[in-house]
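Subject: Antitoxin igA-2 structure
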Amino acid sequence: MRSSSARQAMSEALAHSQGTDLPGIRINAIDLGTVDAKAIHKKRDLTQDEMATVLGTSASGYEKWEQGSRQPSGAARTLLRIMEREPEAVLRALLAKRDAVDSDHSVWKAAH
């Protein structure tokens, strides 16, 4: 990519992030809404510490999500939605480097 093309792409990305419409470009946003992290951790029979570890956040940060004083990032909300609906997919992704995946892993016992 030429330098001018890179600059143009960055300018367009910045303009979009600031709410400017870009001619000829259509961006479809997915509204993830809010997620109930506490309900998901109870449904999956996980502790707050286990949930924080799976989500790659601190235990205190995760606790704030449950209390409603903070909202998870878009990426964390997406992962929570997947944990809510397809917990085996999260388990497979997290254990991908292992040779064998134990689908009855105790952390996911409430998945079925």
